[in-house]
Design a protein that fits this description.
The chain is an all-beta fold and 127 residues long. It has no helices and 11 strands. Strands 2, 4, 5, 6, 9, 10 and 11 form a 7-stranded mixed β-sheet that branches. Strands 1-3-8-7 form a 4-stranded antiparallel β-sheet, with no helix packed on it. A hairpin with a 6-residue loop joins strand 4 and strand 5. It is globular, with a radius of gyration of 14 Å.
Length: 127
């Protein structure tokens, strides 16, 4: 059973930074495209950022572009999300997700395209 375990969430003041980490196990990590999603109370889960299996290409939601950076270390089976200039509206539970590199079904910006999920980590930004 694939496992994705997020860490690094917490409480931070607006303008601050956090770095989220997702450790993957029981999968060939380099065969998977990875993504971060988030979900605020009462709202749908939304795409934040994604990175291809090779780390060669990454995409971001417009709301985080220029502030967040996704990266991966295939040797450590880890994907990171560096979040800078945090805003109150970034408050949410952040989830790590995995999708096989050769799975072309669905839209990579859609949560439904991802087969594996972590349990989430809470990020709270105080204004």
């Amino acid at each position: 059973q694939v496992q994705l375990v997020e860490s690094g969430g917490g409480l931070v003041e607006a303008g601050g930074s956090l770095r989220l980490s997702c450790a993957a196990s029981r999968l060939t990590f380099s065969n998977y495209n990875m993504a971060w999603f988030r979900q605020a109370p009462g709202q749908a889960r939304e795409f934040v950022a994604a990175i291809m299996w090779s780390g060669g290409r990454s995409t971001y939601a417009d709301s985080v572009k220029g502030r967040f950076t996704i990266s991966r270390d295939n040797a450590k089976s880890t994907v990171l999300l560096q979040m800078n200039s945090l805003k109150a509206e970034d408050t949410a539970v952040y989830y790590c997700a995995a999708r096989r590199f050769d799975d072309y079904s669905g839209n990579s910006y859609s949560a439904r395209a991802y087969a594996y999920w972590g349990q989430g980590t809470q990020v709270t930004v105080s204004s």
